[in-house]
Amino acid sequence: MTQVPNVPISTSYFPLAGGLNLVTPALSIPPGMCIDAQNFMPEITGGYKRVGGYERFDGHASPSAADYYVFSITLTGTIAVGNTITGASSGQTAVVIAAPDSTHRVVARVSGSFTNGETLNVGGVGQGTLTATPVANNEATPALDASYANLGADEIRTSISAVPGQGPIRGVWVYNDVVYAFRDAVGGATTEMYKSTASGWSASLHTFAVPGGRFEFVNYNFSGSATGLKMYGCDGKNKAWEYDGTTFTSITSTASTDTPQCIAAHKNRLFLGIQGSLFLSSPGAPTSGWANTGGVSGEIGVGDQIAGLYSLPGDNNNGALAVFSRNSTHILYGYSTSTWNLSPTAPDSGAIAHTTQYVSAMLALDDRGVTLLAASAVFSNFEQATISRNVQPFITQRVGTAVASSVLRSQNQYRLYFSDGYGLAFQIENSKCEAVMPIYYPNPVTCICTGEYSTGEEVVFFGSSDGFVYQAEKGTSFDGAAVESWIRLAFNPEKSPRVRKRWRRMVCDVSVPGYAELNFTYEMDFGDYGLAPAITQASEIVQTVVAPGGGGFWDSFTWDEFTWDSDLISPPRYDLTGTGKNISLLFYNYADITAPFTLQGITLHFTPRRNER
């Protein structure tokens, strides 16, 4: 009798790291990298994190912070979803957002405390009685809790308005804990400036005579006093200006065409980029320190259309100003008229407007991709490198459509946005790019800013083509719409590309802050559909997912679905069925109630078989 050999099961762990790779040969891509992805971003502590949601903003209470209450009731009439109920004795009001059964109503927009036992009126007529004192956000199951919280957010977001006017948002900025927005007036004759308030957007604070600009800003304290921080801006159509929260002051420089497109504060001077020249004020005098107003100002010719300015860290002696032009990059050294030295750092590599940011190094999009400009120990100079090679096909497909950029300092991320709603998130560590992942916002970014409230909270706001301002990294949805996200990992041959393997199990390390849903499937041998995986665990919820506009790839799989509902869980384990030389794992999420979660690493269980003949 022939004895079947006992072949041990092998295990292999790999972290999820490196981001999207569209250019490396298939078998040379590390297993933790992706060959397709959307709306997962590199996590600073490791792994891939589902991108945060965003929600409309005008200064009203945040939709995602809304409370819901489950009212226990005895019905005597009809209380339907959408009704406003009023307590007959308390006088408090609430809006019904769900009717799960005949003895409960879920409500939001609650004005105050209802009284147990009081009659509930709809339109002035009693329709039921409250039979228990309501408690906020107290649904027993995590799934229902997440669903009701989302319905409450949907109710609150209906009170939040677009910025008055027409067309896209032209600029958005944070100054002294207030969000400012700029939009062309109805009719398009001017551009108006607004600020957020607890009751929505204010009346116009200032009118700009020439519409259609694109605003750039900087906050800076030229006085040195504790209360001297002011806001400065320009838009390429009108003069630069200063605003202190109350008074708006136009700035008249010495330029013949005084419409700066770039602005920076550096060495206690205000710098303006006007066409191909730098104009700078006297020290400490951004509004009055110009030659035509009695100051000692200056002009430095760059010779190319200026696309971005950034004051690099350093003291008065070694701090420098990065000057990005459309086709070249310069560094301005010095601190006075006699010491200024404009040095070309990259004579043939510049930047596209609105794509320059700083995350431990200067970053910008040029014609050849995203470049990183980092300080060098050699001659105290700077070195430039292209960091987008792994995603160059993605960028090439969108040449000429970059519209904005931002930083997410808490994640060491540089983000780049295109007019079609897509973007890229670059994770930067020690002046190097560790990973790049694509994101997609259904409401495309037209302008964006990252700010910090006095509490230390980092906030990100962006304007869109629909006239709304949105707060990013907020909530679980895209302003009420589901977030569609996926990662498709590289085909992993487990270091033996010609050996067939029986795949047995996948164990996924995850970090989940709240309720989350995720679909999982896999494919073998570079997508040989003759080896399509089968569901082996009858206890799993099985469904077919059709991705909108996906063209048939995603709906060719059968998916396992799994959910999490607590901070600490055991790593989920899933049986695999099939034999092949390599395997690719796919994770997909389409939901408006899923909190951002992080996939950290994968352990595979498999049995090596024979060599491929």
Structure report:
There is one protein chain. This protein is mostly beta strands and 613 residues long. The chain is built from two helices and 48 strands. The longest helix has 16 residues, at 142-157. It starts with 9 loop residues before the first strand and ends with a strand. Mean pLDDT is 89; it is low at 529-553.
Itemize the secondary structure elements and their pairings:
Elements: E1 10-15, E2 34-38, E3 40-42, E4 48-50, E5 54-57, E6 69-75, E7 84-87, E8 93-101, E9 104-108, E10 119-122, E11 125-130, H1 142-157, E12 166-175, E13 178-184, E14 191-197, E15 200-201, E16 206-208, E17 216-221, E18 229-234, E19 240-243, E20 248-251, E21 262-266, E22 269-274, E23 277-280, E24 298-301, E25 306-311, E26 321-325, E27 329-333, E28 341-346, E29 357-358, E30 362-366, E31 369-375, E32 382-386, H2 392-396, E33 402-408, E34 413-418, E35 422-429, E36 432-440, E37 445-452, E38 458-464, E39 469-472, E40 483-489, E41 499-511, E42 516-524, E43 541-543, E44 559-564, E45 573-575, E46 579-580, E47 583-591, E48 598-611
Antiparallel strand pairs: 1-48, 2-40, 3-4, 4-48, 5-39, 6-9, 6-11, 7-8, 7-10, 8-9, 10-11, 12-13, 13-14, 14-15, 14-16, 17-18, 18-19, 19-20, 21-22, 22-23, 23-24, 25-26, 26-27, 27-28, 29-30, 30-31, 31-32, 33-34, 34-35, 35-36, 37-38, 38-39, 40-47, 41-45, 41-46, 41-48, 42-44, 42-47, 43-44
